[in-house]
Amino acid sequence: AMMMFSIVLMSFLFPVASPNFTTVNIAKAFTEKYDGASPVYIIKFLRPGFAFYTDFYGKELLNADQFSKTIVESKRAYFVVRELDYNRLSDVERQQVKIVAKIADKMLLLKQ
To answer: What's the CA gap between 103 and 79, in Å, rounded?
Structure first.
């Protein structure tokens, strides 16, 4: 029974749940879309995994207030955030960014 449980867990449940626990997919989307010159801001929670998969450290956003302030103050920039952080933005702030990629609960945004 334990062996069958392990097989089901490894074969079906882990692959379905893994996008919620890793930044590998949003990191791939970033490397495909990044222009190579614009600043990149990464929410603190995602930064270690994102840096591991891209070897790109960007600038750390410590909290939602700093995220909002950076959107207003920056020119062209990329943002790697959780959907939760995006949902905390005001409607005006959301209109300033474009969703480039959304994978599970992670988002790549672009302010132009």
So the answer is: 14
Residue 86 near residue 102 (C-beta atoms within 8 A): no
Chain centre to alpha carbon of residue 109: 8
**Order of strands across the sheet with 106-111?**
59-61, 40-43, 77-82, 106-111, 97-103
pLDDT digits (tens, 9 = 90+) for 28-54: 999 999 998 999 999 999 999 999 999
State the CB neighbour count (10 A cutoff) for residue 37.
6
- Determine how β-strand 40-43 pairs with β-strand 59-61: parallel
The single-letter code of the amino acid at 91 is D
